[in-house]
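ok so I'm stuck.
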Amino acid sequence: MSDHTSDYSQYREHLSAEQINAVLRHGHIIPMGRGWTREYLAEHHPGWTFKALLDVFNAAGVRGSGGGCAGICVAGVKYLHFNDDTSFEVERIDAAEVEQ
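replied:
not stuck anymore, here's the structure
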């Protein structure tokens, strides 16, 4: 386990690496052009736009290249806890979790 303990309850949003990737997959021209990205965000992340989430992902350093037009979540991310692109904390996968 990590020695670092944070109080993630101070953040309104908590996205796993899989959830970040799901958002990024909707950054392709087809879902964006057909309105599927807007529908997805309204259902799964109400109040957020795709650009606003990208701003958070970029500021937190969790968005890498590859995986399609909008990228993929970088390796080692467990969760991204955030309020906006100025208030966030990245929870990393612990080495003990990787070895299991």
